[in-house]
Amino acid sequence: MVPEDSTVSIIKKFFELNPTDAAHSLESLSEEEAVVILKSVSPELSSRAFNSLEPHFASNLLSNLPDEIAVQIFGKMTVPRAAELVLCIQRQEEREKLLEQIGPAQADQIRKLITYPEDTAGRIMTPNVVAFNEKMQVGEAIRKLRSMAQKGTALNYFYVTDSNNSLKGVLNMRELLLADEGALLDSVMIPKVFCVEASMDREKVIQALGGRSFISVPVVDKNNHLLGTIRTDELIASAQEEATEDIQKMFGAGGDERVFSPIMFSMKKRLLWLNINLATAFLAASVIALFQGVIAKLTALAIFMPIIASQGGNAGAQSLAVVIRGLVLREVEPRVARKVIIKEALLGLINGVAMGVVAGVVAWFWNGNMFLGVVIAVGMVINMVSAGIAGAGIPILMKALGQDPAQSSNIILTTVTDVVGYFAFLGLAVLFYPLLVK
């Protein structure tokens, strides 16, 4: 079905004024419906919305659009965004088919970008960079800059390189305009430019930029050859996106899932971890089953079991959040990992004693048995100590194994606190059983 003319006008205006909102609206539709909408909008407007679409959904839309429209939309994207969508295409032949239909220069840039590991400076850089040879005269450089400005080229920093494309300096516009037109650029440039290597991790790039108010940063290879630039606002935006992805991963959702992601896509991302969570729930239930005899005789135990488990889960989640943040900010290095785990265990002990005393006193007055209070208090201490160790140890271990420390850490943590909490509490109840039935 093709939208009517009046509807098309409204859609075009929506895409023009609110491309991000338009992207979110597309994500709430099926792929077939989204394709119909995109066919009624110019490729230029569509490409704006594509910058905000969930990558997998966007690549699926490109596959379902007519080739001529898909190529036009793809060709108008920034190189980093285009590279991100190419990586979402599973089949190599489909990737090459799409790349062969756009300009060879842009295709080569995309091919280079996708060779860099994820979350490195090279993956998120823009290959287009304004650079002049150090032996160029000032007058010629000014004329070239004027020509680029007239063509609408975005001009922020202008770099100076040698004949081997090695980064030598950066030009200050004021100094350039005031210099003699016959002077060479190497005499007016600012040497020793701050730059980052293409292989540098994105988080390290952000740390290195701390306190520096640059609009963009040059990216070089290990031999100092200029490769491209990274805009600091885009870098910060990508870091913020990664942080939100980590929050989703902690709870077993897909990092690339959005609010309006298609139902089947969201289901595929969540179902595996839901099944893992179900398995761990059965594991915790099996611990309870070991003590069903004593629970049947002392029903008060069933009342206090959730308290022990939930307090351990909350304490562990606190440790987990602090340590994951420390890993992201590079505060937690392998040499201090043991110290961090011991600190969280000690904190769990102190908080466990404080919470255990309160819970124990409440249980004593509620049930009238002092030893039930003792069992609850000691069980609380054991579980909160184990929660501190697990909350700190799980992300550190995952990082050491080369895995994302946020990936479903909360599910693993909950399993530990439930199993340890139930086993400690019910095990103590068995030991104190003669005193609990008096």
| Helix count from the secondary structure assignment | 21
CATH homologous superfamily (4th level) name of the largest domain: SLC41 divalent cation transporters, integral membrane domain
Overall structural domain count: 3
- Basic shape: elongated
What is the count of β-strands?
7
Q: What is the CATH T-level topology of the largest domain? A: Tetracycline Repressor, domain 2
How much of the sequence lies in strands comes to 5-15%
Structure description:
This protein has 438 residues and is α/β, with parallel strands linked by helices. It folds into 3 domains: 5-115, MgtE N-terminal fold (Alpha Horseshoe), CATH 1.25.60; 131-232, Roll (CBS-domain), CATH 3.10.580.10; 263-436, Tetracycline Repressor, domain 2 (Orthogonal Bundle), CATH 1.10.357.20. Helix content is 66%, strand content 6%. The protein contains 21 helices and 7 strands. The chain has helices spanning 5-17, 19-27, 31-39, 43-50, 55-64, 67-75, 79-87, 92-100, 104-113, 121-124, 138-150, 173-178, 202-208, 232-250, 263-290, 292-297, 300-328, 337-367, 370-400, 409-431, 433-436; strands at residues 131-133, 158-161, 167-171, 190-191, 196-197, 216-220, 226-231. Helix 4 (43-50) packs across helix 6 (67-75). The longest helix is centred in the last third of the chain and has 31 residues, at 337-367. The termini are far apart.
